[in-house]
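Following up on my earlier message about biotin. Here are the inputs again, as you asked, copied directly from the submission form:
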Amino acid sequence: MSLPGPARPLGHTIHALATVDSTQIVAARLAASGATEGTVVTALHQTEGRGRRGRPWLDKDGESLLMSVVLRPPVPPGQAPQLSLVAAVAIVDALRTFGELSAAIRWPNDVMVGERKICGMLPEATTSGPGAIGHLVLGIGLNVNQAAFVEPLTALATSVRMETGHVHDLARVREAVLAALDRWYTRFLAMGVEGLREAWLERSQSIGRRARAGDGRVGVAVDLADDGALVIRTDDGEMVRILAGDVTMEAADAARH
Ligand code: BTN
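Thanks, got it. Here's what our run produced:
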């Protein structure tokens, strides 16, 4: 029996561009005009790179993997953030192929090495009628060949080069990320979040850490729910499910109070 999966491997068509406003914008335009699932846009530099919560995502020419992947998951729009879980597990796997690089997931969208961020993800979905995603553009910004970061990022960001001690070929990094993403996305299509849960927990640095929900409740992250919510045990002993964007993870030295 064949499992449901993307029509063709992710990355079957790659638009490798030099400078763009944002690969998210280019990929969304392609998706709107019918680009199939797995179409990928990369750029060496973005002039209007965007991060989560409307923040800019800055880069220097040729230093990062700046990539947007067109997906058409058959899930309701409310489940779009689950694609960040898929991507995060895949990025950690891809980074493991580059040597002793101990990356871990900070819920929901960051991949970290220790307390420094190495990769961010941005899933942006459009709806097509009630209850269905038209397309979802999954943006990935992975720091690859930065030799150092300047303030205020020095203590906050790292790159594959800084962690491994040498420069990496961006095309090879892209292939490693796409191969891992294809694997985990195929599993997600077949099994939903349940198919990722164990892998996510094993790769997470958030479990056991203090977390603060948007409504002010504070507790310790204890699990990933089957809809992708983070489960927190509050200081009052209550189990609370928190959805993406509604929680702040505290740093390691604040953990395990
Ligand atoms: C975050 O804030 O952590 C998410 C960052 C996502 C950045 C990537 S880079 C490729 C794609 N194009 C964009 O403009 N943003 C995403």
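One observation from looking it over: Residues 22-24, 46, 49-52, 55, 57, 66-68, 109, 120-122, 139-141 surround biotin (CB under 6 Å). Hope that helps, and feel free to reply on this thread.
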